[in-house]
Design goal:
With 374 residues, the chain is of the alpha+beta class. The chain is built from eight helices and 20 strands.
């Protein structure tokens, strides 16, 4: 039953077509450039997220895809059709907004049926589609309620049903869970993921929540100052960031500014501004040369702490400056002798009795850190 709410194609079909393509898209508002020549493609059936801080251009990009704004230059394609001059209501797209944008004077049923009535669908087809959309989002029992009689999570389900009932090629999600509290947001993340997998419809989501993007997406585009810094799978983005911005924005990381000292086929040596020498295994994309500025990135969960000097390449002395108990994990802040700080996240199984000012060593493997160009 759920399949008929989507486009008429098998859910298991393998299709390499792109549902959305942006080619050299620029958007300027007077003297401000919100989107600065971005290129990206969204594959058919993909859950694609555009992630970035406030003001990076992600919402403007979504509005350009939806047709609410027009690009200053560049081209936007949906299912290989150029959208130049095509108004929002003629694009095979529906948008779910953070505010839900439900009609307060209409019941849940009428909110979902609204778009179908505009298309002048027959009463029988409208009834069947609305009933199926309600079942899909588990809101059958609330069809006659008003939005004011629903919780935030229930309103979000109605907004999703209203978007899906029109059988769009693409569903755009503008910070869809941003108005929910933490517990409900976690629950809705699971439901949103299950809904996407069930339907096979292409989802494009804008969010500033890194965890949300990592947990839901097939691929992520990280934006900064109107540019796309990196596009990749959640694991690629987290494990192999291509820029210092991506490393710092996605999750937590320790960043050490410095310069490239030596380059060998299997090892880089980076000297930090405070004089610490760090050894890094180069990636396939490393192109910098000796003497150039660089940043070393190491995730807190990949840093180890001990009171005895370990046998490792990257070993630095310091003392415990702060300890935070997190239940399953313990968060440490270590100040090195050089004055640099290192955050560490370790499973809660050892060192529980350590107090502040305890002398310690931090260490990590060369394969667990990254050297990034500046």
């Amino acid at each position: 039953m759920a399949q008929s709410v989507t486009q008429d194609r098998p859910l298991t079909e393998i299709d390499t077509k792109n549902d959305v393509e942006l080619k050299s898209v620029v958007k300027r508002f007077e003297s401000e450039t919100a989107v600065d020549g971005i290129d990206l493609t969204v594959r058919q059936g993909e859950f694609f997220s555009i992630l970035g801080p406030s003001g990076c251009g992600k919402t403007t990009t979504l509005r350009l895809i939806a047709g609410f704004d027009s690009p200053t230059s560049g081209e936007i394609y949906i299912r290989s059709k150029n959208m130049a001059g095509v108004p929002p209501y003629r694009r095979p797209i529906n948008t779910v907004f953070q505010s839900y944008a439900l009609f307060s004077h209409m019941t849940v049923w009428d909110n979902i049926a609204f778009g179908l009535r505009l298309k002048r669908l027959g009463k029988t087809e409208t009834r069947d589609r609305v009933a199926e959309a309600l079942r899909l989002v588990k809101m059958d029992a609330f069809a006659r309620r008003l939005p004011s009689q629903l919780s935030g999570g229930q309103q979000q389900r109605v907004a999703l049903a209203r978007a899906l009932v029109n059988r769009p090629t693409v569903v755009l999600l503008d910070e869809p869970l941003g108005a929910l509290d933490l517990k409900l947001r976690k629950e809705m993340q699971v439901e949103l993921s299950n809904l996407h997998k069930t339907l096979g419809v292409t989802f494009v989501m804008v969010t500033h929540d890194q965890e949300e993007a990592l947990s839901l997406s097939d691929r992520i585009a990280v934006m900064n100052k109107g540019l796309v810094e990196q596009i990749g799978s959640p694991s690629d983005i987290y494990e192999n960031p291509q820029t210092a911005f991506v490393a710092d924005f996605i999750g937590d990381t320790n960043l050490f500014q410095g310069f490239v000292d030596t380059i060998e086929p299997t090892m880089l040596t980076i000297v930090t501004e405070q004089g610490n020498k760090m050894y890094v295994k180069p990636t396939d994309t490393w192109r910098s040369t000796a003497g150039n500025a660089a940043v070393v990135s190491i995730r807190p969960e990949k840093v180890h702490v001990s009171q005895e000097p370990p046998n490792a390449m990257n070993v630095f002395e310091g003392y415990l400056k702060h300890r935070m108990y997190l239940g399953t994990h313990v968060h440490y802040l270590i100040e090195l002798r050089s004055g640099e700080s290192v955050t560490v996240l370790q499973p809660n199984r050892m060192q529980a009795s350590w107090s502040e000012d305890t002398p310690v060593y931090v260490h990590w493997d060369a394969v667990d850190c990254l050297a990034l160009p500046v």
